[in-house]
Amino acid sequence: MSHAFKRAFFAAAMLLLLSVPIMGLRLKTENVGLVVQNADATTWWTIGGAAALLFFWQLLRDHVPLPGFLQGRPVVVASDAPPGGWRSWLTNASYQWRILYALMALGLVWPFFASRGAVDIATLILIYAMLGIGLNIVVGLAGLLDLGYVGFYAVGAYTYGLLAQHFGFGFWQALPIAGAMAALFGFLLGLPVLRLRGDYLAIVTLGFGEIIRLWLRNETNITGGPNGIGSIPKPTLFGLTFDRRAPEGMQTFHEYFGMEYDPALKVVVLYVVALLLVFLALLVVNRLIRMPIGRAWEALREDEIACRALGLNPTNIKLSAFTIGAAFAGFAGSFFAARQGLVTPESFTFIESAMILAIVVLGGMGSQLGVIVAAAVMVLLQEMRGFAEYRMLVFGLVMIVMMVWRPQGLLPMQRPKLEIKSS
Predict the structure, then answer these.
(1) Which terminus of the chain has a smaller tally of CB atoms within 10 A, N or C?
(2) CB of 364 within 8 A of CB of 411?
């Protein structure tokens, strides 16, 4: 019971830590100073009630049985939660996929009821979710600490920008090329770091990410230098553009269907494309985890010496993890370039790599659903416009609390295992 009380206390404290700055306090500029304003009483009662409900839920959740329709086949639970409890249900891989399917269905209809700004933020969340899915292969499954993942992200974005600027490629034509180019860079990075691990591997990958950014900034003849590449076209649908006026040789979507032009349609289309890309990435990664290559990644993560003793080749395993993980970053970078319409080296700094790594750790290494939840949390923390001065402070406190309270992440995925019952 003491463990449950500690867990409940930290959960309620974390909720208050996030809710009070976002909902309860507002900063207002008066002359040259800042004045903190409090929210109304209803908001404070809502925050307090939510904290109390979360406290009692965390305190009693292991003793609350699942409803009958959620009772499935028995699972082996790796944690200290009883089989069939809510914690076991949320961390089980098959149930997490049911939640993902439900979120996918909800996500398809949600843009028709949300505001344009909310849809745009959701698109950004999906971009970081795809980045987290790719880095999860390298860090969460293969156990290789990569601090330069943003370099592959930049390669994908600039690949699409250069192909669109010099060769007239569209988004769908450049998307697989951007993924392949980022995968090539991941393969080339994997070659010199095959014998490195731990801190040494992190330092080398950090240097790789900075080399890519500085090269993009200094190579003005190719990449445009600090100005970057602009006028990158948005995705089209069967040759139909969603802009107000179509380029020469193309036709707009609203004119083809006899509709009035709606600027919000472009935002919704970008969101739907991002949603489909994330869902396809989840399907591919889930399939890879079940294949021998996924088992090899996990074997490498647990013990490289034992992995070699089993007859597996750690060189090929590391190269496959770097290559496949980088490909997803290339896809995300290509979509990022299409969404922004402009790419510059300053969009791919080290803080981006740190944020993507924090998403993987916060969500739970190896957990696809956890990565999506963590991406939403991290992006929403970044969007705290009224509390921008203390945004990074809140982010740091959240990470500290998570490492103390739940180092395995928000939604860690269970691993199947066999147990021999004693006679």
Answers:
(1) C
(2) yes
